[in-house]
Amino acid sequence: MTFDVITIFPGFFGSILEHGLLKRAMASGHAAIRLHDLRDYTEDRHRTVDDRPFGGGPGMVFKPEPIFRAVETLRSEKHEKSLRVILLSPQGRLLTQAGAEELTRAERLILICGRYEGVDQRVVENLVTDEISIGDYVLSGGELPAAVVMEATVRLIPGVLGNEESREQDSFAVPAGAPPEVRQGLLDCPQYTRPAQFRDWNVPEVLLSGNHEQIRQWRRRQALEETWRRRPDLLAHVPLSEEDRRWLEALRA
Ligand code: 9D3
């Protein structure tokens, strides 16, 4: 997958591209991340990317010309049917695991990072195919959200994670063979490692027992209980066994 990131802060992405998953995915050829400085697509001496909003008001708005020039230049390199032009914006649809999975169907994504009070609406209506937000909180721009979108997407590319199993077991992963409406799993169960006793706190006995059936049942029950307590909204989408239902009944009681 190729990501073309359009930003006024290309340097922002240094650390995430030099570490961990994205670095590995680039080294192995699963992902290419190309950074483009929006100012390189301006034509005036001051390399102006923003201007005051028509109608007045605080702050500045990204001008349409540099963004159109950047996207049209990138688009002309190669004509892909699956190319999507994504604007990271607080008005976008919320990124979910299902949304990240859907993005992996594209060979190439252009990610536009907004700043200031926003982007000229003619960009939104005539250039952008998707608007994505990463959550209902205010950030200063689309750079961190673009990094989040890339990380969430790249780790779904087959072969990027060393251990294919860890992806299947993730909270929020689509259970294998589940119908498309089942998009989200349970929260993870608690994990422990050595020592078995730390200060006054002991690891639950069952995890030391070696009884794999009891361990499986304990983990499943913990996951169900944590999900029921913290994120009951997720439970509606999880396929539940008879045993699961009995446990949830017991908790509710
Ligand atoms: C809704 C707030 N807007 C009211 C005038 C101003 C505004 C706040 C923050 C306009 C742009 C921004 C910058 N944020 C993003 O570009 C952004 C973002 C975010 O702030 N939160 C979650 N996801 C995203 S994706 C892009």
Brief digest:
The chain has 253 residues and is an alpha/beta fold.
Global mean pLDDT? 93
Strand residue content: 15-25%
**Run of helices and strands:** EHHEEEHEHEEHEHHEEHHHH
Helix content: 25-40%
- Count every helix, treating DSSP H or I runs of 4 or more residues as helices: 11
- Unreliable stretches: 176-184
Tertiary shape = elongated
Give the beta-strand count: 10
Enumerate the distinct ligands. ligand 9D3
Label the structural class: alpha/beta
State the strand order across the main sheet: 2-1-6-5-8
Radius of gyration: 23 Å
Q: Give the termini distance in whole angstroms.
A: 49 Å
Biggest β-sheet strands, sense, barrel? 5 strands, parallel
SSE blueprint and pairings:
Elements lengths: L1 E6 L6 H4 L2 H8 L4 E6 L12 E2 L9 E2 L1 H13 L7 E11 L2 H7 L4 E6 L4 E2 L1 H6 L3 E4 L9 H12 L9 H5 L28 E2 L2 E2 L2 H4 L3 H19 L1 H4 L6 H11 L1
Parallel strand pairs: 1-2, 1-6, 4-7, 5-6, 5-8
Antiparallel strand pairs: 3-4, 9-10
Ligand 9D3 binds next to β5.
Description:
The chain is built from 11 helices and 10 strands. The protein has helices at 14-17, 20-27, 64-76, 97-103, 121-126, 143-154, 164-168, 205-208, 212-230, 232-235, 242-252, and strands spanning 2-7, 32-37, 50-51, 61-62, 84-94, 108-113, 118-119, 130-133, 197-198, 201-202. The longest helix has 19 residues, at 212-230.
Features:
single chain; 253 residues; alpha/beta; three-stranded mixed β-sheet; 11 helices; 10 strands; binds ligand 9D3
